[in-house]
Design a protein that fits this description.
Layout (H helix, E strand, L loop, with lengths): L6 E5 L4 H12 L3 E6 L11 E5 L5 H15 L4 E4 L15 H29 L2 E6 L12 H21 L4 E8 L8 H10 L17 H12 L10 E4 L15
Parallel strand pairs: 1-2, 1-4, 2-3, 4-5, 5-6, 6-7
Helix pairs in contact: 1-6, 2-3, 3-4
The structure holds nicotinamide-adenine-dinucleotide.
């Protein structure tokens, strides 16, 4: 029960990693504000408030944060998790509308929340922020150019925000998930299942398997909790060892 009496916001809470994170925080005592594009998929309950917001829209984020403060009076934890992907294309073929869309949600959406929740946390002189980046932000080769660049941006935003906010006792960290079965990766899993090759999806991980949302939620909960009280500005890969090795074909014994 690490989050008793804590107020937490989780974005992208209707699906995948966000839903698992909201569940994990609530199971440890938090009152969770669930945020997504539509509230229809969001459960409401004693420990939940479900709010609609397009995180790419700064004015909408500002309004949402004010609503949360009106209701609860404080914000202890922010999980900046909502994200989108677009079809991968060579750098010479990318449409600028795809850049706007993916950066608008993945990077700017994250920044909007850090800005407006950060102001509340500064006044409180406490808070923990956990951003969901990706292994794609560490290496290329997953999700395409734009997605990778947006997640590299989230990793750096994590570090710069940690420097800006550390003096107020606010910690900012990121998780970098490897391949996880969620709404975002459904087409990949559907394709692999159709071909009977699902086990191959985890082949490049040292643990030889892909991950599940609850394993990312556990890492997010750790970084959001006082167990991580001396950790800030870090991007933790939660990827079954995927980024621990270059995994070059033919270079293993
Ligand atoms: N699934 C993976 O393998 C994987 C790996 C690395 C990182 N991630 C990251 O994890 C995070 C969660 O993704 P997921 O895999 O659970 O995907 P998902 O598609 O299952 O969930 C993402 C949620 O974000 C919401 N969302 C999208 N745009 C939004 C917006 N503008 N405003 C508010 N909500 C919005 C969606 O409606 C959805 O409910 C994302 O940031 C994603 O980039 C996922």
């Amino acid at each position: 029960m690490r989050f008793t009496d804590k107020i937490a916001i989780v974005t992208g809470a209707a699906s995948g990693i966000g839903a698992a994170t909201a569940k994990r925080l609530a199971s440890e005592g938090a009152s969770v504000v669930l945020v997504d594009l539509s509230t229809s998929a969001l459960p409401e309950g004693d420990t939940h408030l479900a709010l609609t917001c397009d995180i790419a829209d700064e004015a909408a984020v500002e309004t949402l944060v004010a609503q949360v403060v009106d209701k609860y009076g404080r914000i202890d934890i922010l999980c900046n998790n909502a994200g989108v992907i677009c079809s991968a294309a060579p750098i010479t073929e990318i449409d600028s509308s795809d850049w706007q869309k993916v950066m608008g949600v993945n990077l700017f959406g994250c920044a909007h929340f850090i800005k407006h929740v950060g102001r509340i946390m500064i006044a409180q002189k406490s808070g923990a922020i956990v951003n969901t980046a990706s292994v794609a932000g560490i290496r290329s080769g997953a999700g395409g150019n734009i997605y990778s660049a947006s997640k590299a941006g989230v990793i750096n935003l994590t570090k710069t925000s940690a420097c800006d906010l550390g003096g107020y006792g606010i910690r900012v960290n990121a998780v970098c998930p490897g391949l996880i079965e969620t709404g975002m990766t459904k087409p990949v899993f559907d394709y692999a299942r159709g071909k009977g090759i699902t086990e191959r999806l985890g082949e490049r991980c040292e643990l030889r398997r892909y991950g599940n949302p609850s394993e990312i939620a556990a890492a997010i909960a750790f970084l959001a909790s006082d167990d991580a009280s001396y950790i800030t500005g870090q991007a933790l890969a939660v990827d079954g060892g995927n980024t621990a090795s270059l995994n070059l074909p033919g270079m293993k014994y």
